[in-house]
Specification:
Layout (H helix, E strand, L loop, with lengths): L3 H11 L2 H4 L11 H5 L18 H14 L15 H4 L4 H15 L5 E5 L10 E5 L6 H13 L3
Antiparallel strand pairs: 1-2
Length: about 150
């Protein structure tokens, strides 16, 4: 298992824009406009294609677009599963661990803590955020849970 400190080190390496506030975007990709229209959908956007087809460049351009829109750099998380230390253990559990470390140490959600549980149901989400503060009404809590399931970031 990869040590937590090593995961944070790898995340900092692939997310250097956290400290610089900028990202090198390369040659503009034709699909950028189509992808940036998806930003308001608050859903995961999957980029899939053959090697060297421009996926990483397009992702960098998407990150650049988010930064241009005023998104705080630490609110954007890029994970490269081709990183040798990640690829050896690529799994849902690793992604959950990375996300938990990111939310706990790099970009915490104020008033929430990360809770990971195994329900035994393969379709049920294994992680989520629960409020630390008790002053929220049940409606506010459940609305925030719906929002986090749609776009946990």
């Amino acid at each position: 298992m990869i040590e937590s400190g090593k995961i944070i080190e790898i995340l900092n390496k692939y997310n250097s824009f956290w400290s610089t506030g900028t990202i090198s975007c390369g040659i503009r990709r034709d699909m950028l406009e189509s992808c940036t229209r998806q930003l308001d959908a608050k859903e995961i956007l999957l980029l899939k294609g053959i090697r060297r087809s421009g996926k990483s460049t397009l992702m960098a351009q998407m990150i650049g677009a988010l930064l241009d829109l005023g998104k705080k750099p630490v609110q954007i998380l890029r994970i490269n599963l081709e990183e040798p230390l990640f690829s050896a253990d690529a799994s849902i559990d690793l992604l959950e661990r990375i996300y938990r470390l990111y939310r706990e140490q790099i970009c915490p959600i104020p008033g929430y803590r990360i809770e990971v549980r195994d329900t035994g149901c393969r379709d049920a989400p294994k992680s989520g955020c629960v409020p630390d503060d008790k002053h929220r009404t049940p409606d506010e809590y459940f609305q925030s849970q719906k929002d986090l399931r749609r776009f946990p970031g």
